[in-house]
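Next comes this protein.

***
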Amino acid sequence: MLTVMPAGAAPSHSDGSRNRVIFVHGFAPTGKHDCAKYFSSARKHFKNKNWKGNLLTFGYYKGDKNCSYRYKNGTRNKSLNTVAKVFANYVADNYSSKNEKVDVVAHSMGGLIVRAALYHSSKGTPGFPKKLYIEDVVTLGTPHGGTKAGYACSGIFAQCKEMKPRSAFLKSLGTAMPKSNRRTGWTTDWTTVSSYNDGVVSEASGIAGIAKHEVQYQAGIGHNELKTVHTGRHKSRIKHPNWSAWSKRVSPVEQARLSVLLSSM
């Protein structure tokens, strides 16, 4: 007999490489990114590892190009909550409304956008969708605890101000990743990745906010390398649920792939 899924039923959680993965870039000092170039190393690595789902990109500046989706009115002065609302509705309208799930890999400030999207969707903030089926999120060098780099441009751009340590925006998100949607019961598995060699986001800030999995790297992995280095073994450690010993482990891009591939990774 055929098993019929009830109308509107949420997708099931499962491991595998068939999910769509949406890559979300970080802050652009120039107000524009080339989405394809920004994540070229990561997306090529996923493809080479036989990832079967679509590898998409989300851009949120009007100057962005080569993005699967671009927020045409986005600027550096759009609040992160505004961008998060656009991102949440993009995912909901194209996938969650059809009961399809996605994974997300976000670099730097992009991780705050994803975090805010899931937080406000769960909370029921006006303008955010109820259903947001994001199965796995990996953040690479995201300033969950803020970044001192935000002070340099906080008087010019709203997004810099919101990235400053102890900003009102960061405080509003609470102290833990939004892993469960209180309105739908859907759960999201989080992996936060940081590096002691990141000159933009400290190793502590990159994993600030409780996540199920936390990973830290040492020398040789800087802020941009977190999204580009996909080969070799690198001194790092993982917390799941306790910190492992420092050892030679997989590259940060491979860690991201494994984290969205295996929910229990």
